[in-house]
Amino acid sequence: MTSSLAPKPKAGALSISDNALNGLQSATTEATAVYSDATSGSVVAALKSAIAIQSLRTYFDDPGIRSAIVALQDSPLGFRTDRDPKIKKKDRDGSYRPNTPYEYEIVKEAAIEALLRGLQLVGNQFNIIAGRFYCTKEGFEALIKVAPITDFQLNIGVPKSSTGGVTVECSATWIQEKTVSFAATIPVKSDQYSTADQLIGKATRKFLSRCYQQMSGKTMPDGDSSEPAAQPLGGTAPSILEAAPTAAPATLQPSSSAAPDSDATLTEEQRSRLDAAMSKCLSAVGARAFEMDVCACFQIDGLESLPAVNFRDVIGGLGNETSVKRWNMGCASGGDGPQILTDEEISELQVDSGADDDVQQELV
Asked: Looking at the structure, do residues 200 and 266 belong to the same domain, yes or no?
């Protein structure tokens, strides 16, 4: 009588049925295909994509698959998050406590988005930051490897000091029907704890993101506090007026007495007075949030296009204590109260202003 030398599964070991694995693979292939078509503007493909994604959600709720996904969470071998329970977070009372991991529904949606965008659930190809999917440097490297290009050559320069952080000169070449040369100066937020390797890593990730956009025409949403904003694939970020709490009235409203045919924009004196008032009432980030609120309200591209007749309305909005609190609270991801700005907008504003953010863990 012979005995098998194969190890027996330990109690509690992960186990996924073949039916679930095969079904998940098939659903992923179908969802990825229709999702790609949907982002090109096809209404029919969008509806098919919704059905395919729902099918994916069903497979991700399989007990075995769910256990496997959770096992990959907060691991460099799988994917990392800003809620790693192995890291302690400082409370307001000064004490430290372990982070609370993200609930599975958030993890599931991020994992599904990663698959739809062509990434894997292992190898730290994506993170979850502020509850949202975030493609990492490793993720962009993986996407570029399978992109329809050849001879990709990357050159990352040395970080140089700049206002609010550093800048890194980056360049790359590749062949995509013809030789393509691409270069950019990448801004990176830094502090006294930042190392050269960390700064170069962040700059590389940001530059690879831009290279991938050039190659594919697709953009990725950003979630890291030090990254500039990127428009979500197939959609636009909501305006801060739409994101404002419904219980509170809009803080800025065009005056009903404004002449509709008045094309005169702010005078130089008015613009100077407005800039001085904004710098006095708001932080640098809050000032940008206020400007975005004004632009959304009056449907203009920038304050330089604001009709002079609406100057008094805007100044009046600045003096509203509730408004100031709302704009500034909207600039702090994870802060108390409603978040007015999207995380992508927050990222861009913080790079410009050098403002601090609650997300300080070095994930990528």
From this structure: no
Query: What count of other Cβ atoms lies within 10 Å of the Cβ of residue 59?
Result: 19
Same domain, 266 and 327: yes
* Mean pLDDT value of segment 82-91: 82
CB 211 within 8 A of CB 180: no
Q: Please name the residues in contact with 334: beta carbons below 8 A apart, sequence gap of 6 or more.
A: 130, 358, 359
End-to-end CA distance of the chain: 54
Q: Phi first, then psi: what are they for 207, rounded to 5°?
A: -70, -40
Q: At what angle do helices 311-318 and 321-329 cross, to 10 degrees?
A: 80
The count of structural domains within the chain is 3
pLDDT, tens only, 204-242: 999 999 999 999 888 777 644 334 333 222 233 332 222
Contact 349, 289 (CB under 8 A): yes
Task: State which residues form the domain around 183.
Answer: 142-216
Confidence of residue 67 (pLDDT cuts 50, 70, 90): very high
Query: Mean pLDDT across the stretch 292-302?
Result: 71
Sign of CA dihedral 84, 85, 91, 94: negative
Residue 273 lies in a domain: yes
CA 35 – CA 120 distance, rounded (Å):
16
Contacts of 217-222 with CB under 8 Å at 24 or more apart are 218/39, 220/117, 220/135, 220/140, 221/132, 221/133, 221/134, 221/344, 222/134, 222/343, 222/344, 222/347
What is the average per-residue pLDDT within 14-25?
86
| DSSP element (H, E) containing 339 | none
Higher-confidence residue of 53 and 315: namely 53
What pLDDT sits at residue 137? 93
SS3 (DSSP) at 243: helix
The C-alpha atoms of residue 9 and residue 51 are separated, in whole angstroms, by: 36
